[in-house]
Design goal:
Blueprint lengths: L1 H19 L27 E4 L8 H17 L2 E4 L6 H13 L4 E5 L3 H14 L3 E5 L4 H7 L6 E3 L2 H16 L6 E6 L7 H13 L3 E6 L2 H5 L5 H10 L3 E6 L2 H4 L2 H7 L8 E5 L3 H8 L5 E3 L3 H18 L5 E3 L4 E2 L4 H9 L4
Length: 344
């Protein structure tokens, strides 16, 4: 009897404790974060950008820059307007002023005019809430001042690239002190001239006699205009052993220049900057021995991307060194297909 009473008390106690226990809380997996809002399915849609490819529409180098920007616009949805400047620093600054007046969200510029000429205009743009970034030629003062506001740089480090090409060309050509080298560049341009300066100092360090010629405005705009200048230099200095062209479009025209001067493939060691279809042909034909490739497609792509990142997400400026390695007859086939598609 006592056992039955004890068993009954245990059962009752069990029900009481169950009734007094806290009710179980329903649980569920946390919701996935919402995807970033973007009109038309593109995260940078609605962002208006003015983009400077640098030279002339259809030019070998600048077309690759343009193609990179076009791809970035397609990937991000940015609304990009393109402005061509004929590689003229004065035109770049005047066009920048015109671009500001259209009140874009951002402007991607070539830094050829240099800090002294460009920075007052950049100050105005930044004061109006316009994001600015540079490509191809660095603007170190503006970049230091506005890096936190999204001012970046995509391009080669110019002096280093120039010095590297000059040093490598001397070594590969087997030149010695006293040999003559013709350097065709842009020393007079602040900022942009750093690459020519790097080449010149490398050649001089090796003891070469450097014959320097500034690229005039007509040749800067259209390389073929430089044929009389080139032939004149060689007529006065027939013993030149090395030619360095500090301009992508001139490098791509080296075969024309050498033929006009009465030279044959291999008579003169030729080195220069930037790949192009004509440069590939010249390398394979023995007219051009060495090219340093700064992968300018990336300059266009990252120029647009930098402005989108700054405008949409407040990212600071990125420093992208697009300068790569050397291209010669031994590895030209590895990049030739991409050069034909105007990606390299």
């Amino acid at each position: 009897m006592k056992a039955k009473i004890l068993l009954s008390l245990i059962v009752v106690a069990t029900f009481v404790m169950a009734a007094c226990a806290p009710a179980p809380v329903a649980t569920q997996a946390p919701a996935a974060p919402a995807a970033p809002a973007a009109a038309g399915g593109k995260w940078c849609s609605g962002t208006k950008i003015v983009f400077f490819p640098g030279g002339t529409a259809g030019g070998g180098f600048e077309t690759v820059v343009y193609n990179g920007a076009v791809q970035a616009a397609a990937d991000t949805g940015a609304d990009v307007q393109y402005v061509w400047s004929d590689w003229d620093p004065a035109k770049m600054t005047s066009q920048f002023t015109q671009a500001m007046a259209t009140k874009p969200d951002g402007i991607a510029i070539m830094g050829h005019p240099g800090d002294t000429a460009f920075d007052p205009l950049i100050d105005q743009a930044e004061g109006q809430g316009i994001f600015v970034t540079s490509m191809n030629t660095q603007l170190p003062d503006a970049q230091a001042k506005y890096s936190a506001a999204g001012f970046g740089y995509a391009g080669a480090i110019l002096y280093q690239a120039g010095y590297a090409l000059g040093t490598e060309a001397v070594k590969r050509a087997g030149l010695k002190a006293g040999d003559k080298a013709f350097l065709w560049g842009l020393l007079a341009q602040a900022g942009r001239g750093e690459r020519t300066k790097g080449v010149k100092e490398a050649l001089e360090k090796a003891g070469l006699t450097v014959i320097y010629q500034e690229i005039d405005d007509a040749t800067n705009k259209s390389a073929a205009a430089g044929v009389p200048v080139f032939t004149g230099i060689f007529s006065a200095n027939p013993d030149i052993k090395l030619v360095v062209t500090d301009h992508g479009n001139l490098t791509g025209t080296i075969q024309t220049f050498l033929q006009a001067a009465g030279k044959k493939p291999g008579d003169v060691y030729a080195a220069g900057f930037d790949m192009s279809g004509n440069a590939v042909t010249a390398i394979k034909g023995g007219w051009l021995q060495l090219v340093i490739d700064q992968q300018q497609y990336l300059q266009g792509y990252f120029g647009v991307l930098q402005l989108c990142l700054a405008k949409k997400y407040g990212f600071s400026g990125l420093q992208i060194d697009t300068g790569a390695g050397f291209v010669d007859k031994n590895n030209v086939d590895q990049v030739a297909g991409f050069v034909t598609k105007q990606i390299r």
